[in-house]
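Researcher: I'd like a structural prediction for the single chain below. Treat it as a standalone chain; there are no partners to consider.
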Amino acid sequence: MDKKLISNYLKRAQKIIGDRSLGEIEYDDAVIASLEEGKNIRESIEAANTTFPKEALDPDAYAWDDLDSRYQYLKEHKAILTKLSQKE
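Model: Treating it as a single chain, here is the predicted structure.
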């Protein structure tokens, strides 16, 4: 694999995702797991909010399409990292 290409991808992904605490990463992973089970974004956010109340998102503060886009991106990013055998 082209190391420069991977490095550029990871830098770009970091800018898009931003800094997250361990709790935020766990929350995001819970949302992604629900999406992978076939739940929609609303169900996934509700499930993660129940499991991680400290990190809970207020869905009324966001546009559902924006939340869905963010989590679809994170889902794909996680799959890419898995393929690259790297961890967040």
